[in-house]
Amino acid sequence: MNDHKVKSIVKSLSNIQSDNFFEEICLALGQAIDSDYVFIATIDENKNKASSIAVARKGQIVDNFSYHLQNTPCSEVANESICTHRDNIQQLYPNDQLLVDMDIEGYVGVPLKTGEGKVQAILIALFEGNFANVLEVETLFLLFSGIIERELHKANYVKTIELHKHIIENTHEAILICDKEQRITYVNPAFTRMTGYSLTDVLGQTPKLLNSGIQDKNFYQAMWRELNEKGYWKGKIWNKNKEGKVYLEWLSITAIVDEHKSVTHYNAVFMDVTEQYRAAEKIKFQESYDELTKVANKNSLFDFINLSAARYQHQHPTSAALLVINIDLFKKFNSLYSYGFGDKVLVEIAARLKSVVQPSDLVARTSSDNFAIFVNDLSSKDDITKVINKVRSAFIEPLHIASVSLKITVTIGVAFLYKDASDAHRLFEKAEQAMFVAKDISRNSYQFYSQQLADEASKEEQLKQSLEYGIEHDEFSIVYQPIVSVEGYAVTKFEALIRWYHNGSWLSPADFIPTAEKFGLISKIGDIVLEKACAELSKLKAQGFTELAFNINRSIYEFPVEANDTAWLDTIRRHELEPKDICFELTESVLAPENDTHIALLNQLQLAGCTIALDDFGTGYSSLSYLRRFPIDTLKIDRSFISEMTKVEGDVVLVSAIISMAKALNIAVVAEGVELKGEVDILRQLGCDYIQGYYFSKPLKPAHLAQYLMEVNSEGRIG
Length: 719
Fold this sequence. Notes:
CATH topology of the largest domain: TIM Barrel
CATH class of the largest domain: Alpha Beta
CATH architecture of the largest domain: Alpha-Beta Barrel
Strand content: 15-25%
Strand order of the largest sheet: 20-21-23-24-25-26-27-28
Radius of gyration: 31 Å
Number of helices: 25
């Protein structure tokens, strides 16, 4: 990877204005890869036609154009494929007249996707001659596709805002907005149609002008009390229009608050009773059914089971059973294709499950990749095996979705009503436990709940109690592994690693951290690590090691509920340390789109002076667009990539690309799990900033840190 090219593109982008972003990035990429054309084109919904939004030709912006995708290499790109041909492209696509007209021989194309994983545009480079640096061009295109996708999303977002404004102006529901003093600042046209009042009539007045006089003082006092306590109120209310005509409306009022939770505005939406009925029906459906698959949801399933429980109370204990069904490798389908593709899979699975049950049974979707079937009227335990076989047989034939043939398997857990549990909640828990056991044994299998499963659950409960005891009785200790600067092999950082000595033996974090996360104990353990590490660092600084910093791991499950929570910073300062002395290490799961709410806390920590490291980079949500949204100071490349560098050439290229990308974003890089000199040599050549691993040192006990640092400082070497 050519660092200079990456940096030159990043530098070009730093001065780009929003209105000419796509043209400038086409120019920058064209110059970097020495292509004759670079263009970005949007794809229509049916993937029949491409329309360019920016075209760079030999350093100049030229006119946009449109073309049909059939019989072109761009059709492959539009169908989510990276397409590269170093030469002879005209011979491969003889019916693509555009290639002939432009005299093109070499071609590179990369799909550009929406946040839902759907291809919305394509990034294309064309060469009038052949080209040799295929890997470099592909890597650069993939590296910067995230930025282009973000800008496409931004452009779509602006359109969405305009659309929302259009919707508000044209919606049938009346909308009224007041300031904190309850003075009207906005009404939409529907408000005018319903009440007869225009914005000019009501601007600066209060909603009292609509008061019909039917509701008494107590009604309004109760309404405002609930609005102030809960932040919203909804219900039926009689009002009158400009002509004095009284009408019944369904009114919803929401208090709008700022970051300090102070009310800034009130938003009121109201409609007539017909709209109320329709809304109630929609809400009723959403409360009872899964919106995507149209089968029952978990709440409806539990109600159905509890109703059935009374029926079977005095019958044999295998008259009814619950199957909890997990789709094997469903998350992999989402990552390989898209979330939209995954939704289609779920809809098809629900249809197949419904096809194998009796009218007296119920199919439900209970989570993202879990379904359940409650089966009634079983004459014996053997009958449920027949149902299981029907379910499994339903997936013998592959699913055919969007030209993809997909083989689905499911893992099933079974629990019997009354034999295993007498209420819906416990029955579901036990069927789910059986499913997890089946999955541990083998995918595409099934398992009945048994006492052995109960014993396993009891074992997990005992581990939870042991963790609670260990937390209360200070059984946890910390060791510290040096993080070595490649420049001069200096040591100014250590990663704090937890150890647990319980009942005469050491337990691996891999054995207890998942249980701690599952039962909500991880925050307390994380606080112990931070507390002990800060105390040790404070002691070392008092001994003269003033430039030292510690890296502290925090799980995504440890983030405070409130974004403005200062507990972590308070701990640092209580030990007379500066925030810059602590780097918080987070795993890549923090980059997942659903965790955007954590950005505020990370920004707060970084603004105070702490640094943020992203651990195990490359194993999860690695995305340039995500990295640009989150405040990240350091990337830690996962050891799985490092250990393969000396064996697999492709891993060297990948590590090189990660380092180049990080440097372009001014992010430092740490390589984890380094054990061999050959790995060190490669990392130095690639420009890695820091190295961590057994090659230099195993984790050290606190008592050995000062001596280790003195030896390193005096001898100028490590190991």
